[in-house]
Amino acid sequence: MTETALDKTTKIEPELIAFRRLLHSEPELSEQEFKTQEKIIAKLEEYGIPYQKESGKRNDLCASRRSLQT
């Protein structure tokens, strides 16, 4: 049986909840979320999820969930 994106997400749900709590425990001002962005990039790289930083903007980030469906 092929593992679906939902199956993969369910497996890491506790880790994702802990990560969300970490992000919310260290708030940053709007448009100044540089530490938050660094943490998100590290997590995306850990999971092998492709992303790109939007050009012309200091802290915009775009990632694709399609990579989780493979």
What is the topology?
Blueprint: H1 5-25, H2 34-47, E1 51-53, E2 61-63
Antiparallel strand pairs: 1-2
Protein name: Hippurate hydrolase
Report on this structure.
The chain is mainly α. It has one domain (5-69). The protein is 50% helix and 9% strand. The protein has two helices and two strands; from the N terminus they run ααββ. The chain has helices spanning 5-25, 34-47; strands at 51-53, 61-63. A two-stranded antiparallel ribbon has the order 1-2. A hairpin with a 7-residue loop joins strand 1 and strand 2. The radius of gyration is 14 Å and the shape is flat. It starts with a helix and ends in a 7-residue tail after the last strand. The model has no long low-confidence stretch (mean pLDDT 86). It comes from Pisciglobus halotolerans.
The oligomeric state is: single chain
Helix share of residues?
A: 40-55%
Q: pLDDT average, as an integer?
A: 86
Shape: flat
Low-confidence stretches: none
Q: How many domain units?
A: 1
Main sheet: strand order: 1-2
Beta-strand residue fraction? 5-15%
Query: What's the gyration radius in Å?
Result: 14 Å
- Helix segment tally: 2
Tell me the structural class: mainly alpha
Biggest beta sheet summary: 2 strands, antiparallel
